Fold this sequence. Notes:
Residues 1-20 are annotated as: Disordered. Helices cover 44% and strands 21% of the residues.
Amino acid sequence: MELSKEHDNSTNxxxxxxxxxGEGIVIKEIPPSADLPFTLDKGEKIIYYAKPDKDIYVHNxxxxxxxxxxxxxxxxxxLIIGFIFFIIESLIGLVNAAIYSIAVIIIMLLIEFLAAYxxxxxxxxxxxxxNYWITTKRLIRQVGITTVISQALDVMPLDTVSEVExxxxxxSKMFQEGWTVIAHPIAFTGYMSSSGQAxxxxxxxxxxPHMTKEQAEEFKKYLVYERDLNNPNLTNS
Length: 237
């Protein structure tokens, strides 16, 4: 079920209440909702909540499928049409070959349309389960539907966070990923892929993608503030 604009406005209002004008930060506890997909530890409080930007999130997922599937279908259509004209055209005649080729193109366009349609529906459904929290102890990202079997949560203790950076991943209008907040762990010796997934290290880098520039800057501000409270020996530029 698609989230309403009222829900987005409510989220913004909650976070605005936790902010003060200028560069200062005033922390105001955000009451946990009944459907919170994790349990707060004793004394732990939620101080910031965010979601990816819906337009960026949906555009990125649908564009990926649209162009990848589109290219694959184009190649397949050319191969089939080539087979029709160069292999069996002499058997079925030029007119029939042209008719079959047009039918192939229509079928491929229909498949492309259905793929884009269902991908968008899936993205809108999945958007409900893309949530970011900063608590007084942890950095939490929900990456899917949380059930009894699958806890689709990515959790990072704040006292293990070192550097926090913002990356602009607007690679092109085709793949508009928006801005991503990257939380680096204190001990990391591996490498990170372009999607923000870390490999081979002692601790994983956490990525919070599909934000607007304003969202990312505010998220980073609160994250750095709370990180410094948990580990005052660290500083972040």
